[in-house]
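[audit] Reproducing an earlier prediction to check determinism. Same input, same settings, fresh worker. If the tokens differ from the archived copy the diff job will pick it up downstream; this log only records the rerun itself.
[audit] input (270 residues):
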Amino acid sequence: MKQNIKVAIAGLGAIGWELAQALDSGKVQGCQLAAVAARNTEKAQAKLQGLSRPVPLLPLAQLHEPADVVVECLPPALLQDAAEPALQAGKTVVVLSVGALLRFPQLLEQALEGPGQILVPSGAALGLDAIAAAAEGEIASVKLVTRKPPAGFKGAPLVEAQGIDLDSLAQPLKLFEGSARDAARDFPSNLNVAVALSLAGIGPDRTTLEVWADPGVTRNTHSVEVVSDSSVLRMQIENIPSNNPKTSRITALSVLALLRKLASPIRVGT
């Protein structure tokens, strides 16, 4: 087994802190927590007191230095600040703010040029391995329908611009219908699933979706249909929200699974 993959975490919100605790406890064999970065250093220092051993708190620009892998758990606008220096140094960057890759396409170009690389975990999505396999042939269409409790869309640019009162919804409301690219613009913190699906499949302009604020659901629900020359895939996932209603509990777990795969001699899945 490959040992001692040093992992740095950018951001100590709901997901980042869960990852830090898991790595600190030795939950992922072969990986160790090397450093963290956070916007609020005072709060971060207080959290870090709860870990079993001291971990350095570094600026984003230096976070990659003691690490092999940088896991980004930041607001989308800060993705470039963490990813660019890490990629330039030849490190692996695990990106959770997947929609922001469309905002900062130079990061994708940087990864293509090397020596660094970008990994996108499944996060709250499903079937990325099957979609990537189907993309080796011909995919005719990919459609996603997302339903979340209204609180999960608070602060989204489209909701703010249209003055939608999410608290007063008594019936499901369709907030958006269009491409994954436009959804990433209008919901930068909500629809990483759509962009992940598009990167695995036929791109952000041909991947289409509907977005619903639904007071009748308690879980973040994503239904996907993929039509290709090799298969028709119909998938649905109902994710339990994390402490942050914009994200799902399974997102942090998917990062742990990815790190475990990096450190393991046996890898299951495409």
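[audit] rerun output stored. Observation attached for the diff report: The mean pLDDT is 94.
[audit] end
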